[in-house]
Amino acid sequence: MKKIILLFLTISLMNCSSDNTTQSTNQIIVDEPIEMVSELNKWYQNGSSEWLNGATATIETTRRYLLYFYEGDTLINGLQYKKMYYKQLDSIFNQPFSGGSNQFISTFNDLKYISAMRQDSDLVYNIFRNQNTEELYADFNINLGDILNYRWNGNDETVTEIDSIEIGSKYITRYKLSNNQYFYEGIGASYGLFKDWSVGIEGGEYLSCFKYDTDKIGIEEGFNSPINYCPEY
After folding, report:
1. What is the DSSP string of 139-199?
2. Cα 139–chain centre separation
3. What is the mean pLDDT of residues 33-52?
C-alpha cells in the first residue's frame, strides 16, 4: 500500500510540475513583444488624393488602399532579411471643376517588392529595392524623454508619454511624441511605414489598421484615413 501511495504522489507532483511549466511557457508567449519583422504582421494604409487637371477642367480623385506584408527571405551582404511587399488598389474618379458628381474612370492594381528588412533585438534595419546599403529604420529601445531614433524623424521629436494598447492577448507599447503624434512598438509611425508626420497638400494614404496574425487594431491617430479599416484584396 505504501508503494502505491508513493507512486500516486510522484505522478501527482509530476503533473503539477508539468502544469506549472505549461503555465509559465504560456505566460512567456503572452508577454513577448511583437516584433516588427515578422510574417505575422500586416499594415493597411488608406486615403485619397486630388489634383486639378487644367486641360480637362476636372478634379481627379484617387482613392488608394495599400497593404504591406512580408513574404520570404533574402540574403544581402551575408545577412538575412525578410522581403516586404505592398499591394496597391487605386480607384480613380473625375469631377467637373464647375461642380457635379464624381465619375468613375478606372481601377489600378499593383504588387511590388519595396524593401528588405531585418531585426536585431530592438534595432530594425531596411534596404530599399534597387539599393544595397542598409539603413537603420528604427531603434525600439525607447525611454521617456528620448529623441525618437526613427529614419523619418527629421524634426527630432521626443517621447513625452508611454502607455500600451491591447491587440488580442498581447499589448503594444505606444509612445506619444512632442508633435502629439504616436510611434508604436512593432508597428512604426502612426502615419505609415515609411512616412513622417507631415500632411501632403493634395492628400495621400495613411495608416489606419495593423494586423498581427488574426488580431486587428485600428490606428486612430492616422490622418484622414478610415479608422480600423483593414480591406483584404
Report:
1. E----TTPBP-BTT-TT--BEEEEEEEEETTEEEEEEEETTS-EEETTTEETTBTT--S--
2. 15
3. 92
How distant is the alpha carbon of residue 26 from its chain centre? Answer: 25
Distance of alpha carbon 220 from alpha carbon 216, whole angstroms: 13
What residue numbers bound the domain in which 49 lies?
34-218
The pLDDT value given to residue 8: 39
The pLDDT of residue 168 is above 50 = yes
The secondary structure element, H or E, covering residue 204 is strand 203-212
In a domain, 144, yes or no: yes
The residue with greater pLDDT, 74 or 61, is: 74
- Please tell me whether residue 205 adopts helix, strand or coil conformation: strand
Q: How many domains does the chain have?
A: 1
Nearest-angstrom CA–CA distance, 77 and 186: 25
Residue 212 to residues 29, 105, 217, Cα–Cα distance (Å)? 14, 35, 8
pTM of the model: 0.80
pLDDT single digits (tens) 121-140: 999 999 999 998 999 999 99
Task: Give the H/E segment covering residue 96.
Answer: strand 79-96
